[in-house]
Amino acid sequence: MSSGNIRYGATIRKRKRAVTQQKIALYKCESCGKNSVERISTAIWRCRHCGKIYAGGAYTFTTAMGAISKHSLDSVGKSQRTAVQDSSKQV
Ligand SMILES: [Zn+2]
């Protein structure tokens, strides 16, 4: 997509440029640690190096809401693991 299809307003063109840069940027892969995660479709991101596929934001790899939900999922998993460890200690 070129910027030719957006008209009438500098703000919206600037916003489009920021989104496009996030869209084409490479992000860090959590699996192999390389900076090679690229957007292959809306909200679908794939690592060029190891081929792992991520679900992310439509135009950026991680969204604010995605980070919040990941954090809460991590804390739920952590509390479940400690609960299992505690019960195994009691037995
Ligand atoms: Zn990878």
UniProtKB/TrEMBL annotation:
Q: Which GO terms describe its molecular function?
A: RNA binding; structural constituent of ribosome
Identify the keywords attached in UniProt to this record, alphabetized.
Answer: Ribonucleoprotein, Ribosomal protein, RNA-binding
Q: Does the keyword RNA-binding apply?
A: yes
Q: Does the keyword Ribonucleoprotein apply?
A: yes
InterPro entries recorded: Ribosomal_eL37/eL43, Ribosomal_eL43, Ribosomal_protein_eL43, Ribosomal_zn-bd
Extract the signal peptide range: none
PANTHER family assigned:
60S RIBOSOMAL PROTEIN L37A, LARGE RIBOSOMAL SUBUNIT PROTEIN EL43
Q: Which family does it belong to?
A: Belongs to the eukaryotic ribosomal protein eL43 family.
Identification of the protein by name = 50S ribosomal protein L37Ae
